[in-house]
Write a structure and sequence with these properties.
About 45% of the residues lie in helices and about 10% in strands. By secondary structure, the chain is of the alpha/beta class. The protein has one domain: P-loop containing nucleotide triphosphate hydrolases (Rossmann fold), CATH 3.40.50.300. Strands 5-4-6-7 form a four-stranded parallel β-sheet, with helices on both faces. Strands 1-2-3 form a three-stranded antiparallel β-sheet, with no helix packed on it. The two termini are about 35 Å apart. It holds the Pfam family Sulfotransfer_1. One of its GO terms (molecular function) is sulfotransferase activity. Belongs to the sulfotransferase 1 family.
């Protein structure tokens, strides 16, 4: 049984904003995570949701290469059908399971939408293991989890909060909330570790664990691993074409997955008047697409604090954020 209670501290108080307000701590046995009040009605529907063996799930902590991975996975699992991919948005092809519970002002029934998808379903979510459907352990659909080093993940999430969620505070307050496990979907370290450990279990062959850094270092090799995981085979020329399609510049210009609709929603819904003026700049949902972009936003003190956080997160495991 999942229990929940209102959660508030100096960190949540400083980052509350129109898109994510009223934080709650959810617990299940010895596991816990932070979500917002809007998510609470989704707990039971998600737990009880039907899961199918031919489902394909892409799961990440927010801002860890989710959109990039979704586009790759959908194309690999659909015969590289670029024409169809161009006609349907990524949200239509690969919907976000808990979207209506992840943003305070987002309407709709995202769980019902996923339940009604024709099979095989492609499902995106950011949920920690403890909040996944109960049937996912026994049915064992294909799960692709992507991690990212905490410094870059936090930096990208900060820009997401500013430009999508409606946060107008200083970056230091946001980084403090990340380091003190007080953001939605926190704790980051346990989120990553739980999926890493799942992927290493004898029964975890249905969970492929990737890192953003692997994808940046050798996307072609990752395409090969994901193809094999999905039971697909493609020629060298086909992989060449997919690699070009998945470049940062191509993804930014791809209207089916560059999230322009979400940006427009944010401008009209979560942005303060100050933010509306600032939004006239050229922010893009697919931002830098690099490893090490945190250096533009963190001073030496925060870099050191995040490196200490990384060491604590990986202590006692064979996991490395950069492997």
């Amino acid at each position: 049984m999942i229990r929940y209670e209102k959660y508030s501290n100096q960190y949540t108080d400083r980052i509350d904003c129109p898109g994510t307000e009223k934080h709650y701590r959810l617990t299940r046995a010895d596991q816990w995570c932070i979500m917002i009040e809007k998510f609470l009605p989704l707990v039971s529907p998600i737990q009880q949701m039907a899961v199918y063996e031919d489902d394909v799930w892409v799961i990440t902590y927010p801002k860890c290469g989710t959109t990039w991975t979704q586009e790759m996975v959908w194309l690999l699992n659909n015969g590289l059908d670029y024409a169809r991919a161009g006609k349907l948005t990524l949200e239509e092809r690969f919907p976000f399971l808990e979207l209506s519970g992840a943003l305070s002002l987002m309407d709709g029934d995202s769980v019902g939408r996923v339940q009604d998808l024709p099979r095989p379903r492609h499902i995106k979510c950011h949920l920690p293991v403890m909040l996944l459907p109960d049937a996912i352990r026994t049915v064992r659909p294909k799960i692709i989890y992507v991690s990212r080093n905490p410094k870059d993940a936090a930096t990208s999430f900060y820009h997401h909060y500013r430009n999508i969620v409606g946060y107008d505070g200083p970056r230091e307050h946001f980084f403090d909330a990340f380091l003190n496990d007080s953001l939605i979907y926190a704790p980051f370290s346990e989120h990553v570790r739980a999926y890493w450990e799942w992927s290493k279990q004898p029964a975890g062959a249905n969970c492929l664990f990737l890192t953003y850094e692997q994808m940046k270092r050798d996307l072609r090799a990752v395409i090969g691993r994901v193809s094999s995981f999905l039971g697909k085979r493609y020629t060298e020329r086909e992989v060449d074409e997919l690699e070009k399609h998945l470049s940062v510049e191509s993804m930014r210009n791809n209207k089916s997955c560059n999230m322009d609709d979400l940006l427009e929603w944010a401008r009209n819904t979560t942005h303060s008047e100050e933010r509306k003026q600032l939004s006239k700049t050229n922010f893009q949902f697919i931002r830098s697409g690099t490893v090490g972009s945190y250096r533009h936003d963190m001073d030496d003190d925060y870099i050191q604090r995040f490196e200490e956080y990384e060491r604590a997160a990986t202590e006692g495991t064979d996991f490395d954020f950069f492997f």
